[in-house]
Amino acid sequence: MTDLHGFNSAPAEQLRPLLTECLAVPRWVDAVLAGRPYATEDDLLAASDAAAELSDDEVHAAIAGHPRIGEKSSHGGVSAKWSAAEQSGVASSLADRLKAANAAYEERFGHIYLVCATGLSGERMLDDLAARMANDPRAELRVVNAELRKIAALRLRKVLRNHDTQGS
Prior knowledge:
By secondary structure, this protein is mainly alpha-helical. The chain is built from nine helices and no strands. It has a single domain (4-160), classed as UraD-like (Orthogonal Bundle), CATH 1.10.3330.10. It has helices at residues 4-9, 12-22, 26-34, 41-51, 56-63, 77-86, 95-109, 122-132, 137-160.
């Protein structure tokens, strides 16, 4: 599918795997599918955003498939391609600093650091990670939820444009 019409008319079983690659939360996938047909792309994105107010358990489940910033996904598939492109601003020269920062973050919060990395440099991500270390764990989960919402919207746009939606 290359447009909203194709998204609206595609069989749910065809869309479900692609939507899961956007945000691996079954309730969100079901809500986005149930909202069809969408009159505009903005309507789709608004429905996605509304459904992406996730529980703590859903946030943890959704981030489970994301690679650490600066690392490649071990899962393969479409989301691995998307993640690599989204993290393209991370210079390899930052690898050691990112690894150490990721480890400190994971020790503090018990999960990987997640940010919508599109358009961000590695330095900017390191700054963001450092600032977020001051959050309490509950507040940080809400920040992660907001980042997941941004990632879902970005990836939904890719689905609508049939941009790299074929797995490896």
